[in-house]
TrEMBL record:
This is Peroxiredoxin-like 2A. It is found in: Cytoplasm. Keywords: Antioxidant, Cytoplasm, Redox-active center. Coiled coil: none annotated. GO terms for molecular function: antioxidant activity. Belongs to the peroxiredoxin-like PRXL2 family. PRXL2A subfamily. GO terms for cellular component: cytoplasm.
Length: 77
């Protein structure tokens, strides 16, 4: 995302939301790497949930993570 990320409205909205909620961090590190969340099932279930950040501060929905985690079936030995 590099420099274009600083000109996106959503990035600034996410920054102010985190600031209002008391986020405190050292803000050190790569800074240009977007993250993601995967829920992977056992055995051949594969990926049950995939969330990739599209812009800085893009959050995954907690209910969707919990729903995907509940779908994980135990693997037979």
């Amino acid at each position: 995302m590099m420099l274009s990320g600083f000109f996106r409205l959503g990035v600034w909205q996410n920054f102010f939301r985190a600031w209002r909620n008391g986020y405190s961090g050292n803000l050190e590190g790569e800074g240009f790497t977007l993250g993601g969340v995967y829920v992977i099932g056992a055995g051949r279930q594969g990926v049950l949930l995939e969330h990739r950040e599209k812009e800085f501060g893009d959050k995954v929905s907690l209910p969707s993570v919990l729903e995907a985690a509940e779908k994980i079936k135990p693997q037979a030995s």
